[in-house]
Amino acid sequence: MKFKQKFFDFLKTVFPATKFEFFLFLVFLSAYGILGTYIAMNYRIIFDDRIPWDAYFSFDNRAIVMTGGGFERHPLSNYFFGWIREFAMMISHGKNEESFRLVLAWCSNFAVSLSLIQIYKYLKNVIRLTKTISVLILVFFSFFTTPILLSFTPETYTYTLFFLMLFNYYAALKLKKDEPISAASLTLATVSIGGFTVTNAVKVFIPLLFENGLFKSWKKFTNAAIRVFVSVAVFALLFLYRLDFNYMRFFEKSGEQYEKFSKPRVTPLWDMVCSWFFGGNMLFSSFVIRDYHNNKGFQYKALFMEVYTSAVPYIFIALVLVLVFWAYFKNFKNKLVQVLMISFFVDIIIHCVLKFGLHTSYIYGGHFIFVVPLMMGWLFYSYKNSPKMLSFLFVTVSFLLFYLGINNFLRMEEFFTFLNQYYR
Q1: What Rg do the C-alpha atoms of the chain give, in angstroms?
Q2: What is d(CA 272, CA 278) in angstroms, rounded to the nearest whole number?
């Protein structure tokens, strides 16, 4: 009976558990589904066997679907995408055309829609916001660049967004109840999250730092250390198995990748951080088209984001960041807020300080951008007893949503112009 109850609790955590959550899930599934279905059935950009990488915004669709990506960054994703690929092939009867693309798009759509439900659950069940405020924040996030693009893109970031959001929700529930995260859950999270992107594995262990009495009891500290050791050991063994236990390949390839993706760019550092790391995952900028080839002679056009060219987008990003850090300082002693922000700082260090992939950091949003709506939720929570401040925040987010929706809708029209011209 205990196992059966845990199984049902797991299902209620992962999937919509109330009628309203199910309604929200269907709304997002339908909205993103219409977008993804139209793109998959009319354009070849989601998957073209001749285009391994960079067709739009530097996503590596074909490379990820066919191989899971490079082992040095995506150590176990080849297994997951092997299942996705086989499922899509089964539905499409072995052809990688419209129906194949459609399955890939709907798998992404399903994962992103579930991610949004996890955000709603966090806002409603962890922060305890009203339904109206929770929906406002959720809809605001749903118009971000990251969920829009990932809703039809077969990439590691798509599923990383879901697994990271699911784990953050689960960990928050555990911390609220002063319960430890089990070794099994920690191991599963490490394998799934770290398996898609190795650097994200460290985020799995952040909640452990805030378990009740961890640094006051040798017994609790030892227990936590054992749980970490078990999860890391399992992950390492699975990773080494993929490498045939030739661990030196990982260090050699990682050095090459860092050198390749961390070279200085002509664009000023501050503008790459503002326009691409923070901004590009929320608000589309203008686009630039470049000529690419697949090393076998096939020429194709690729679409990338430019930095912002007017003051308004910078003001938008600044306002959003003010809300995020306002929430952080207002709730500084809240351990759940610290978990979110430390996780966010991990990505800031990787991309903004070490400059890894900063020139295309608008594709990495699945790793961290969900922190924005959650921190907004904590800001509303801070003023739950102040009707005037709640009204002010509600109006502010509503105005931000209005601008975000118009900007991203117009930019998606430009995206479709690009598709019509080069990817029919």
Answers
A1: 21
A2: 9
